Amino acid sequence: xxxxxxxxxxxxxxxxxxxxxxxxxxxxxxxxxxxxxxxxxxxxxxxxxxxxxxxxxxxxxxxxxxxxxxxxxxxxxxxxxxxxxxxxxxxxxxxxxxxxxxxxxxxxxxxxxxxxxxxxxxxxxxxxxxxxxxxxxxxxxxxxxxxxxxxxxxxxxxxxxxxxxxxxxxxxxxxxxxxxxxxxxxxxxxxxxxxxxxxxxxxxxxxxxxxxxxxxxxxxxxxxxxxxxxxxxxxxxxxxxxxxxxxxxxxxxxxxxxxxxxxxxxxxxxxxxxxxxxxxxxxxxxxxxxxxxxxxxxxxxxxxxxxxxxxx
Length: 312
Known about the structure:
Elements: E1 2-3, E2 8-9, E3 18-22, E4 25-33, E5 36-43, E6 48-51, E7 61-67, E8 69-74, E9 77-82, E10 86-89, E11 96-100, E12 104-110, H1 115-134, H2 140-156, H3 161-172, H4 183-186, H5 194-200, H6 203-213, H7 217-228, H8 249-263, H9 275-284, H10 292-300, H11 302-308
Antiparallel strand pairs: 1-2, 3-4, 4-5, 5-12, 6-11, 7-10, 7-12, 8-9, 8-11
C-alpha cells in the first residue's frame, strides 16, 4: 500500500521488496532509496555472515539485533551482542565476521546498495554447489567435510578472519574445475592413461577460471586456493610445480584436508583406508607432499577432526 503524496510505503505482514536465502541464512530487502538499503537478516544457529572492509568505501553500516545473539570477530577480538544491541561502523576498517549463537534476526542498514551483491553471490554459490555435488562420484558431504576440516586447521594456524572467510569458499569449491572433466575419466574404475591424467591435472586451472569469471570479489579471492590445492611442498605437484611458501597457506591447508577425506572415502577404484592409516600417510608426507606447519596443526587437532568426520 502506497501513499505517494507523503512518500510513504506500507509493507504488511513481513512483506519485503526482495527475498533470497541460502544454507541457513535469509536476506529480506525491506527498503531501498538513493543508495541506502535496509535489509533484514535471519540466521540459523552457527551460520556466519561477513562485512568485508574496502579501501574505496567510507560510508555508514548499521546493525540492530532483533532476536538471538551474534558473536562478532574482528581480527582476533571477539564481542557478543544480543537482542536490543546495535553496532555502527563508519567506515568498516576491518573485515567483521558475525556468527549466530542461536537463531538470530537483525536489521542491517547500509548507505551503499549491497543487496544485488548478495543476490549475485548466492545465485553463484547455489549453481556452483549443485555442480560440485553432482561431479566426481562424491556427495555434498565431501565438500562440507573438506570445508570443516580446512577451517579447523586454519583456526589452529591463527589465520585472520578474512583469510578464514576466503578459505571457507575455496575449500568448499576446490574441485569446481572438474565440471569440465569428462565423467568417463573422473569415474574410471581402472588406472588412468597418461593422456587422461593430463586432462585431470587441468581441473585446478579450470576451477580458477570459473571463480575469476564470476567477477564476484569474494569468489575471485578464493580462486588462488582452487588453483593451487594440488601443488606439493617439494615442487612436484600440479599445475605449476610451485614449492614451499610459494603455495598459499589456504591451498596448503586444503591439500591436507582433501587428502584426508579422499583416503577415508570409498571411491570407484578403491576402498577407503582407516582414519589411522590416513593420519600416518599425512605424517609421512610432511615436508614433501604437505607444508609441515599445516601437518603440525592438523596433528594437534586430529582427534577433534576424527569426531567431526564421524569416524568414532
